[in-house]
Amino acid sequence: MNLILFGPPAAGKGTQAKRLVEGRGMVQLSTGDMLRAAIASGSELGLKVKDVLARGDLVTDEIVIALIEARLPEAEAAGGAIFDGFPRTVAQAEALDAMLAKRGAKIDSVIRLKVDDAALTDRIGKRFAEQGRADDNPETFKDRLAVYNRQTAPLLPYYEGQGKLTEVDGMGDIAAVAAAIDAALDA
């Protein structure tokens, strides 16, 4: 099964993906984690990514797609992938569909975590205070959220038109969100 967890930064995608990895044996393909690893490596790519994220912008499709494609064999061996933070645009969704089709696979389900922007801003402020991640800076986060809302809105009708979109209330506690996701996947 290939699943997309869809929602803005700090919506809880990573938390739910980790739970699904443990419970269902899937591989989490988190672009955020992959990009942070690139930054930590100190490579030329990592320095580019660091600069882009510090401005609150999104990295190019080419970089993100290459990172995802490199991890697909691992996901296939595990029986499926959880795409976390990808795709963010219709162009990325189309590239993902084409990439998977070449491998005889497809996206099976898209779970959208519906959340409130004001609550996310509060959540990110707490996470920044606790973890100090540079990409969680509250000022930068506002830019990331605006970019997310502007660029990813077209993905809703894209996946809805394919009959793959399920919406889950992402504002509940972790257990309630987990139960709603499990119910959607088991349906």
CATH names the topology as Rossmann fold
Based on the structure given, which CATH architecture is correct?
3-Layer(aba) Sandwich
**Any idea what the radius of gyration is?**
16 Å
* Helical residues, percent: 55-70%
Q: At the first level of CATH, what is the class?
A: Alpha Beta
Regions with pLDDT < 50 over 5+ consecutive residues? none
Give the spatial strand order of the biggest sheet.
Answer: 2-3-1-4-5
Family: Belongs to the adenylate kinase family.
Keywords: ATP-binding, Cytoplasm, Kinase, Nucleotide biosynthesis, Nucleotide-binding, Transferase
Binding site for AMP: 31, 36, 57-59, 85-88, 92, 133, 144
Protein name: Adenylate kinase
Short summary:
The protein has 187 residues and is of the alpha/beta class. The protein contains nine helices and five strands, in the order E-H-E-H-H-H-E-H-E-H-H-H-E-H.
Verbal overview:
- This protein is an alpha/beta fold and 187 residues long.
- The protein has one domain (2-177): 3-Layer(aba) Sandwich (Rossmann fold).
- The protein is 61% helix and 13% strand.
- The chain contains 9 helices and 5 strands.
- It has helices at 13-24, 31-41, 44-54, 61-78, 90-102, 117-131, 138-152, 155-161, 174-186; strands spanning 2-6, 27-30, 81-84, 109-114, 165-169.
- It has a 5-stranded parallel sheet with strand order 2-3-1-4-5.
- Helix 2 (31-41) packs across helix 3 (44-54) and helix 6 (117-131) crosses helix 7 (138-152).
- The model has no long low-confidence stretch (mean pLDDT 89).
